[in-house]
Automatic annotation (TrEMBL):
The lineage of its organism: Eukaryota, Metazoa, Chordata, Craniata, Vertebrata. The keyword Cell membrane does not apply. GO terms for biological process: cell redox homeostasis; cellular response to oxidative stress; glutathione metabolic process. This is Thioredoxin reductase 2. Signal peptide: none annotated. Residues 7-162 form the FAD/NAD(P)-binding domain. GO terms for cellular component: cytosol; mitochondrion. Belongs to the class-I pyridine nucleotide-disulfide oxidoreductase family. InterPro entries: FAD/NAD-bd_sf, FAD/NAD-binding_dom, GSHR/TRXR-like, Pyr_OxRdtase_I_AS. The keyword Flavoprotein applies. It comes from the Eukaryota. Keywords: Disulfide bond, FAD, Flavoprotein, Oxidoreductase, Redox-active center. Its cofactor is FAD. One of its GO terms (molecular function) is glutathione-disulfide reductase (NADPH) activity. It comes from Ictidomys tridecemlineatus (Thirteen-lined ground squirrel).
């Protein structure tokens, strides 16, 4: 186990709320750490910093919606004098790859923003030891103790799937 590290504020959760909280506290001169770990969903979904919205929610949905709008515009373009070769084809794999690349760039951007504000980031799953201390376990099994004067829980939520109806 790594030695205990002390902070003014420890934020559990790397989604939009947790990141905003951590960045603001750091800008106010506090020593801040963020811990974030995503337990893969039953379907195996996992992701990086930014939470549900960035990784599997709002952002990918809006990018896919934009792709659909572009398809509609291309189909209508001939009405406005544009000569577009027919048939129009869409490559789902290429679109999905572009969406994932954009999401990864946002994950990286969040990490850079934390570094710029001197917020320490830990990719660990945190469990409380007491009101000021958590034990974080990395994917490798390595344990890290973190303590803070204040701890914010910003983990969001996940649906629970019924086992029988």
């Amino acid at each position: 186990m790594e030695g205990q590290q002390d902070y003014d504020l420890l934020v559990i959760g790397g989604g939009s709320g947790g990141l905003a909280c951590a960045k603001e506290a750091a800008q106010l001169g506090r020593k801040v750490a963020v811990v974030d770990y995503v337990e893969p969903s039953p379907q195996g979904t996992k992701w990086g910093l930014g939470g549900t919205c960035v990784n599997v929610g709002c952002i990918p949905k809006k990018l896919m919606h934009q792709a659909a709008l572009l398809g509609g515009m291309i189909q209508d373009a001939h009405h406005y004098g544009w000569e577009v070769a027919q048939p129009i084809r869409h490559d789902w794999r290429k679109m999905a790859e572009a969406v994932q690349n954009h999401v990864k760039s946002l994950n990286w951007g969040h990490r850079v923003q934390l570094q710029d504000r001197k917020v320490k980031y830990f990719n660990i799953k945190a469990s409380f030891i007491n009101e000021h201390t958590v034990c974080g376990i990395a994917k490798s099994g390595k344990e890290t103790l973190l303590s803070a004067d204040h701890i914010v829980i910003a983990t969001g939520g996940r649906p629970r799937y019924p086992t029988h109806i």
